[in-house]
Task: structure prediction
Amino acid sequence: MKEIRAVIQPHRLAKIRSSLRNIKGFPGMTVSKVDGCGHHLAKPTNDIREELTDYSPKVMIVMVVSDDLLEGVLQTIVEIGHTGQVGDGIVWVTPVERFIRLSEQIKVVDC
Result:
Protein backbone atom coordinates (compact mmCIF):
# COMPACT_ATOMS: atom_id res chain seq x y z
CA MET A 1 0.00 0.00 0.00
CA LYS A 2 1.03 3.58 -0.60
CA GLU A 3 0.14 6.96 0.83
CA ILE A 4 -0.44 9.68 -1.73
CA ARG A 5 -0.28 13.33 -0.75
CA ALA A 6 -1.10 16.06 -3.21
CA VAL A 7 -1.09 19.82 -2.73
CA ILE A 8 -3.29 21.33 -5.44
CA GLN A 9 -5.10 24.49 -6.46
CA PRO A 10 -8.47 24.66 -4.65
CA HIS A 11 -10.43 25.13 -7.88
CA ARG A 12 -9.19 21.75 -9.19
CA LEU A 13 -10.52 19.74 -6.21
CA ALA A 14 -14.09 19.12 -7.41
CA LYS A 15 -12.99 17.72 -10.77
CA ILE A 16 -10.26 15.56 -9.20
CA ARG A 17 -12.72 14.20 -6.62
CA SER A 18 -15.31 13.43 -9.28
CA SER A 19 -12.77 11.57 -11.43
CA LEU A 20 -11.30 9.63 -8.50
CA ARG A 21 -14.78 8.42 -7.50
CA ASN A 22 -15.03 6.77 -10.93
CA ILE A 23 -12.03 4.53 -10.18
CA LYS A 24 -13.28 1.12 -9.08
CA GLY A 25 -12.11 0.42 -5.52
CA PHE A 26 -11.19 4.03 -4.78
CA PRO A 27 -10.90 4.12 -0.96
CA GLY A 28 -11.70 7.78 -0.33
CA MET A 29 -9.53 10.67 0.74
CA THR A 30 -8.96 13.31 3.37
CA VAL A 31 -8.94 16.95 2.28
CA SER A 32 -7.45 19.88 4.22
CA LYS A 33 -7.14 23.57 3.46
CA VAL A 34 -3.48 24.61 3.64
CA ASP A 35 -1.34 27.61 2.76
CA GLY A 36 1.92 27.29 0.94
CA CYS A 37 4.65 29.05 -0.93
CA GLY A 38 6.55 27.75 -3.89
CA HIS A 39 10.19 27.23 -4.60
CA HIS A 40 10.32 30.26 -6.90
CA LEU A 41 12.31 33.19 -5.66
CA ALA A 42 10.25 36.05 -4.32
CA LYS A 43 11.30 39.67 -4.73
CA PRO A 44 13.66 40.66 -1.92
CA THR A 45 11.89 42.81 0.65
CA ASN A 46 12.67 44.46 3.95
CA ASP A 47 9.01 44.44 4.99
CA ILE A 48 8.08 41.46 7.17
CA ARG A 49 4.38 41.95 6.29
CA GLU A 50 5.15 41.32 2.62
CA GLU A 51 7.21 38.23 3.44
CA LEU A 52 4.40 36.75 5.51
CA THR A 53 1.85 37.22 2.72
CA ASP A 54 3.83 35.21 0.17
CA TYR A 55 1.58 32.23 0.92
CA SER A 56 -1.33 31.19 -1.26
CA PRO A 57 -4.31 28.98 -0.41
CA LYS A 58 -4.03 25.36 -1.48
CA VAL A 59 -5.79 22.08 -0.77
CA MET A 60 -3.99 18.96 0.46
CA ILE A 61 -5.40 15.57 -0.47
CA VAL A 62 -4.23 12.54 1.53
CA MET A 63 -5.17 8.95 0.76
CA VAL A 64 -3.92 5.40 1.20
CA VAL A 65 -4.33 3.19 -1.85
CA SER A 66 -3.48 -0.37 -2.78
CA ASP A 67 -0.52 -0.83 -5.10
CA ASP A 68 -2.79 -1.79 -8.01
CA LEU A 69 -4.68 1.55 -7.79
CA LEU A 70 -1.58 3.72 -7.43
CA GLU A 71 -0.84 4.56 -11.07
CA GLY A 72 -4.46 5.28 -11.98
CA VAL A 73 -4.94 7.59 -8.99
CA LEU A 74 -1.65 9.39 -9.68
CA GLN A 75 -2.49 9.83 -13.34
CA THR A 76 -5.87 11.32 -12.46
CA ILE A 77 -4.42 13.79 -9.96
CA VAL A 78 -1.60 14.88 -12.26
CA GLU A 79 -3.69 15.24 -15.42
CA ILE A 80 -6.51 17.18 -13.76
CA GLY A 81 -4.35 19.15 -11.33
CA HIS A 82 -1.96 20.37 -14.04
CA THR A 83 -2.85 23.74 -15.56
CA GLY A 84 0.64 24.73 -16.64
CA GLN A 85 0.70 27.69 -14.26
CA VAL A 86 3.21 28.41 -11.51
CA GLY A 87 1.78 27.07 -8.26
CA ASP A 88 -0.14 24.09 -9.68
CA GLY A 89 1.10 22.02 -6.73
CA ILE A 90 3.00 18.83 -5.99
CA VAL A 91 2.28 15.13 -5.51
CA TRP A 92 4.33 12.56 -3.62
CA VAL A 93 4.05 8.90 -2.67
CA THR A 94 5.33 7.11 0.41
CA PRO A 95 5.16 3.43 1.39
CA VAL A 96 2.71 2.36 4.09
CA GLU A 97 3.87 -0.36 6.47
CA ARG A 98 0.53 -0.97 8.22
CA PHE A 99 -3.05 0.05 7.63
CA ILE A 100 -5.85 -0.24 10.19
CA ARG A 101 -9.45 0.62 9.33
CA LEU A 102 -11.00 1.67 12.65
CA SER A 103 -14.58 0.96 11.54
CA GLU A 104 -13.88 -2.76 11.17
CA GLN A 105 -13.18 -5.24 13.93
CA ILE A 106 -9.46 -5.10 14.64
CA LYS A 107 -8.38 -5.90 11.12
CA VAL A 108 -4.74 -5.02 10.61
CA VAL A 109 -3.32 -5.18 7.10
CA ASP A 110 0.44 -5.64 6.97
CA CYS A 111 1.65 -4.13 3.73
User: Anything to note?
Assistant: The chain has a mean pLDDT of 87. The first helix runs from residue 13 to 21. Strands lie at 2-8, 30-36, 56-65, 89-95, 98-100, 108-110. The chain is about 25% helix and 35% strand.
